[in-house]
Amino acid sequence: MPDTHARTTDKASARAASILGLCLPGDTLLYLLLPMQHEAFGVTLAEAGLLLAANRLVRIFGYSHVMRFYARRGDRPVCVLAAFTAALCALGYATLSGFWWLLLLRLGWGLTYAALNLSTQVMATAEPTGAARRTGRSRALIATGPMLALPLGALVSVEYGPRVIFLLMALTSLVALLLAYGLPSKPHPLASSSRRFQRPDSVALWSFIEGLVLDGLFIIGLSLQAEQLMAGNAVLVAGGLLALRYVSEMLLSPLGGLAAQRWGATRMLIVFSLLTSVALVGFGCHWLIVGGALVLVLRALQLPLVVTVVAQRHPGTGRVRALAANAVWRDIGAGVGPLIAGLLLPVASTVWVYSLAAGCLAVSALACREVGVRGEEGRQASAEEA
Fold first, then answer.
1. Which residues contact 115 (CB under 8 A, 6 or more apart)?
2. Do the domains at 1-185 and 200-386 have one common CATH topology?
3. Which of these, 364, 242, 234, 356, lies nearest to 296 by C-alpha position?
4. Cβ(138)–Cβ(59) under 8 Å?
5. Total H helices, total E strands in the chain
6. How far apart are CA 40 and CA 304, in angstroms?
7. pLDDT score for 35
8. What is the pTM assigned to this prediction?
9. In whole angstroms, how large is the CA radius of gyration of the chain?
10. Distance in angstroms between the alpha carbons of the first and the last residue of the chain
11. Cα separation of 248 and 349, whole Å?
12. What would be the CATH architecture of the domain defined by 200-386?
C-alpha cells in the first residue's frame, strides 16, 4: 500500500511538471523573439521590455490570490484552466499585434505560471519521502520543454517569421490541458498567516540584483547583442545560448549543491557571483558566445545556493517566510530588469551597462559575506550560551 501511494505521488508530480514544461516554451520563445523582432509584433523596444516584465510584475501582486484559489479548488481544475489560458496566450502571440493586446496576454500568462509552478512544487513535496528526488526530476522535466523549443523556434523564425512557432506552442499547451485532467482534484488546506512588509536582508537584496541582472538585463541583452554582432545568424546564436541555460540547469544545479555542502553555501555563492561579474563584463565587451555561455553556466551553479543560505540564516519557523520573501524580491528584480534593458540598451554603451551591473552583483554578494560571518558568529555565541 505505501508503495502504491508513493507511485501515485510520483506520477502526479511528473504530470504536473510535464504540464508546466509544455506550457512554458511559449513564454521562453517570446523572450528570444520579441526584443529582436519587436516590429513584427507592433511594439517598440521599450514596450517590448515592459511586456516581458509584465508577467512577473502581475505575479508579485497576484500570487496570494492564485494561492488561495489553488488551495480551494485543487490541482486538476486550476491546471486545466491554466493550461487553457497558456494556449490562448500562445495563440495570441501568433495572431495579435499592438501593446495593449500583448499586455493582456502577458498578464494572463503571469497568473498562469504562478498556478502551474505552485502545483508543481506542491505535488513534488506531497510526501516527505522522496521529495528531493521528485523536485529534481521536476526541474529536469520543466527545463526540457524550453530547451527543445528554443532551437526549434529559432529555426522556424528564420524560415517563416517570428510568429508561426507560437501556433505550435498553442498545440503543446493543449496537450498539457489533456494531461491536467489526470491530476488529483482535492483541495489543499491553507494555514492562516499575518503578512507584514519587511525590509530585505542582504541575501534578499542579492536575489533582487541577481534577478534584475541575470533574468532581466542579461536575457534581453543577449538577443540584442546577437542581432548586432551575428547579423543573419542572430536568432540561431541567441536561441542556442538560451537553450544552454536550461541544459545548464538540468546538469549543473546539483553540482552547485554539492559544492555548497563541501565548502559552504555562502562562500560558493560569493565565488560564483564574482565569477559571474567577470563574465558579465566580458559579455558587455561583445564576447557574446564565451561571455554569455559563462554567465549561463554560473547562473545554474548558483540556483541551489541562495535557498540553502536563506534556510541556514532563518532556521525553524522563520524559514518558510524567509524563502517566500526571497522569491518575491527575485521576481521584483527580474520584472524591473527588462524595463531597464529596454530603456538603457538602445542608448547606452553595453560596456558601461554591464560593467555597472557586474559591480552591483559583486557588491551585493560581498554584503552577504559580511552579514553571513556576523550571523554565524551570533549563532555560535547563542549556542555556547545555551
1. 66, 69, 70, 78, 79, 81, 82
2. yes
3. 242
4. no
5. 13, 0
6. 38
7. 82
8. 0.70
9. 21
10. 44
11. 29
12. Up-down Bundle (1.20)
Sign of the dihedral defined by the CA atoms of residues 193, 195, 200, 201, in that order: negative
Question: What distance in Å separates the CA atoms of residue 177 and residue 98, rounded to the nearest whole number?
Answer: 27
140 Rama class: left (phi>0) / alpha (psi -120 to 50) / beta: alpha
C-alpha 68/C-alpha 70 separation (Å) is 5
CA distances from 192 to 68, 166, 229 (A): 11, 40, 53
How many other β-carbons are positioned within 10 Å of the β-carbon of residue 382? 9
**How many Cα neighbours within 13 Å face the side chain of 3?**
0
- Residue 57, Cα to own-chain centre: how many angstroms? 13
Is 1-185 a domain of CATH 1.20.1250.20?
Answer: yes
Q: Give, in order, the Cα–Cα distances in Å from 280 to each of 209, 232, 236, 297.
A: 13, 24, 21, 12
How many angstroms separate the CA atoms of 253 and 303, rounded? 6
Residue 128 per-residue DSSP state: S
Query: Any idea of the CA torsion for 353, 162, 144, 180, to the nearest 10 degrees?
Result: 120
pLDDT by residue, tens only, the chain of 386 residues: 456 767 888 889 889 989 999 999 999 899 888 888 888 999 988 888 889 878 888 888 877 788 778 878 888 999 999 999 999 999 999 999 999 999 999 999 999 998 898 788 777 766 656 655 666 677 778 888 888 888 888 889 888 888 999 999 999 999 999 999 999 888 876 545 555 556 788 888 998 999 898 887 887 777 677 666 665 565 666 666 666 777 877 777 667 666 766 787 788 889 999 999 999 998 888 787 788 788 888 887 777 677 667 766 766 545 445 656 777 788 888 878 877 887 887 777 888 888 999 999 999 999 987 444 444 433 433 333 33
The answer to whether 126 and 13 have CB atoms below 8 angstroms apart is yes
**Count of C-beta atoms within a 10 Å radius of residue 63:** 20
8 Å CB contact between 305 and 253: no
Q: Where are the domains of the chain?
A: 1-185, 200-386
Instruction: Give 320's Cβ-side CA count (13 Å radius).
Output: 4
